[in-house]
Amino acid sequence: MLFANSTGGDGRKLLLVLQAMDTAGKGGIVRHVMGGVDPQGISHFGFKAPTKAELRHDFLWRIRKQLPAAGMIGVFDRSHYEDVLIARVHELAPAAEIAARYDQINTFEQELVDDDTTVIKVMLLIGSAEQKARLGERLNRPDKYWKYHPVDIDERMLWPAYQEAFQIAPERTSAAAAPWFVVPADHKRYARLAVQHLLIDALKGMVLA
């Protein structure tokens, strides 16, 4: 119905932002939750490390290029928040610049809301023990070998720094127009159901007809 309404000039769209530590289940949510939606109405993008070309622009430049069009449900598997999460932990930019990005994100997301975009931001929180178990599973199951990378172990050594970054980001960027939803992710089924209901509630709130 969201997609159909856009053909008549309805400019509304929805953006689901997924942020999490590695193994928290972002990919599973994309497959199991968004997999129930007609793919013609979905735009999905996973943000990796910025390219040389992207680094020549401000950090939101590449994000703007992937925003959903009218009638679409956009899904960001990682997002502009990488620039205040991993960038903060690894000191990829000066502290003052990272601090300024929180306000820039707030302004950016308000612009999205003003442009008829419903923004749903989900922070999936996984426990240290559960993450360790899931990383081990990648080595024990041949079908998951491709997911394993030695750097995953190095990142676990930065757990306290990541927890601090994941605490600060929602505190600085949760607004009435674009709130954060923190979802426990140790149980995959629960996390998927939680995100599913957030999407359903948002779509019902649009009163599509």
In short:
This protein is of the alpha/beta class and 209 residues long. It has helices at residues 2-6, 26-32, 52-55, 61-64, 86-89, 95-114, 128-140, 151-156, 159-173, 188-205; strands spanning 13-20, 42-46, 73-77, 117-125, 180-184.
Description:
This protein has 209 residues and is α/β, with parallel strands linked by helices. Helices cover 46% and strands 15% of the residues. Strands 2-3-1-4-5 form a 5-stranded parallel β-sheet, with helices on both faces. The longest helix has 20 residues, at 95-114.
- Helices, by number, come to 10
Percent in helix = 40-55%
Biggest β-sheet description: 5 strands, parallel
H and E string: HEHEHHEHHEHHHEH
Which structural class is indicated by helix and strand composition? Answer: alpha/beta
Number of strands: 5
Mean pLDDT, nearest integer?
Answer: 95
In percent, how much strand structure appears in the residues?
15-25%
What is the CA-CA span between the terminal residues? 7 Å
Q: Catalogue the unreliable spans.
A: none
Radius of gyration: 17 Å
What general outline do the C-alpha atoms trace?
Answer: globular
**Strand ordering within the main sheet:** 2-3-1-4-5
